[in-house]
């Protein structure tokens, strides 16, 4: 399975290093102060193999520029109410953009088409009352109504027991999956062995079909 694997919400240097060498494709850092996985300082180790993703919620463009430079970010993930124009501006300045959308009902896909051409990937997550993940899974069948051209990452409650469901889920624009809280020992600290087993069960190959 040549699927992009993104591990999000990492905070501690040795833990980041141990996940980086597993062959995951992206490691995400959350720059949202209200998140329990908020990264407030540069860890001693940053990924050298996986791409670095900065996760922001309704952040100013100036602060995003600062974080992108300081952490050497490869992708900007926008997890708030950012407009298509906001994404267009960042994208036109050379940033690779992942725009997150919260999904609970088919109507939640209606706004996605407004972002076509301004994002490299979408990320479809479970709708919650607050910004950020819930650790819960939404009905993936809703995504069969998505007919856009932008590839997407699947998120929301994916856990070590999701392998069978992931292998059975098919969509022409599915590019990869995003894992977070269900692979943790505590907020921001990932269970490396759990991730390694998950990758093996998934049949994850080291390379992907998508140009990262």
From TrEMBL:
Pathway: Amino-acid biosynthesis; L-tryptophan biosynthesis; L-tryptophan from chorismate: step 3/5. InterPro entries: Aldolase_TIM, PRAI_dom, RibuloseP-bd_barrel, TrpF_fam. GO terms for biological process: L-tryptophan biosynthetic process. The keyword Acyltransferase does not apply. Residues 6-200 form the N-(5'phosphoribosyl) anthranilate isomerase (PRAI) domain. Belongs to the TrpF family. This is N-(5'-phosphoribosyl)anthranilate isomerase. It comes from Bacteroides stercorirosoris. The lineage of its organism: Bacteria, Pseudomonadati, Bacteroidota, Bacteroidia, Bacteroidales.
């Amino acid at each position: 399975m040549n699927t992009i694997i993104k591990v999000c919400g990492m905070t501690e240097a040795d833990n980041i290093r141990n996940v980086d060498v597993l062959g995951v494709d992206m490691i995400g850092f959350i720059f949202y102060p209200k998140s329990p996985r908020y990264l407030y300082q540069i860890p001693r180790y940053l990924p050298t193999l996986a791409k670095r993703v900065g996760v922001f919620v309704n952040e100013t463009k100036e602060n995003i520029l600062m974080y992108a430079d300081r952490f050497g970010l490869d992708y900007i993930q926008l997890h708030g109410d950012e407009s298509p124009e906001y994404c267009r501006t960042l994208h036109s300045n050379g940033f690779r953009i992942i725009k997150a959308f919260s999904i609970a009902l088919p109507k939640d896909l209606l706004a996605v088409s407004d972002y076509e051409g301004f994002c490299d990937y979408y990320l479809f997550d479970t709708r919650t009352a607050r910004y950020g993940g819930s650790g819960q899974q939404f009905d993936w069948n809703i995504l069969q109504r998505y007919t856009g051209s932008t590839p997407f990452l699947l998120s929301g409650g994916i856990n070590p027991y999701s392998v069978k469901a992931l292998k059975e889920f098919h969509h022409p624009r599915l590019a990869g999956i995003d894992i977070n809280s269900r692979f943790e020992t505590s907020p921001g600290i990932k269970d490396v062995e759990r991730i390694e087993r998950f990758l093996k069960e998934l049949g994850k190959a080291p390379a992907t079909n998508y140009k990262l």
